[in-house]
Amino acid sequence: MAIDWDRLADRYAQLIQAGPRSQPELSAIDDLLGEAASGFPKNRVPDLAWFVAALNEPRKKWFVAKTLERVNPVPSILLDPLLAAALEESNPSANRVFIAPCVRTFGKEAVKVRLNELAAQSERYADESLAQAMYWAEAKN
Known about the structure:
With 141 residues, the protein is mostly helical. The protein contains 8 helices and no strands. The longest helix is centred in the N-terminal third of the chain and has 16 residues, at 23-38.
């Protein structure tokens, strides 16, 4: 049975926009992310393509990041999109959710090398974006 990733991402966005959360709401978020992680497409290219594209959508990228907190290992096809999302995130505290799964799977050194390469390849990223992302690549998680 195919998972409707758009439906899960939309539901996640609804739940987190609700503001202060009650225990039932927190449980609903946890259940939803558990469902997403348990159905995660480790090698199904069409589904992985959805995750790559979703990292470029403001409402869906958080669902992807929170799902990947529960997935190990992270497929290599998601490394660059996750790190690009981290470099594009203006909130230096929030970009951790994109970097931590990468560090867990690929290691600190590989993530730092790739962050430097991505930042050097594009003028879209400010110097501070790289510094902020590197902070989380170095952090003890």
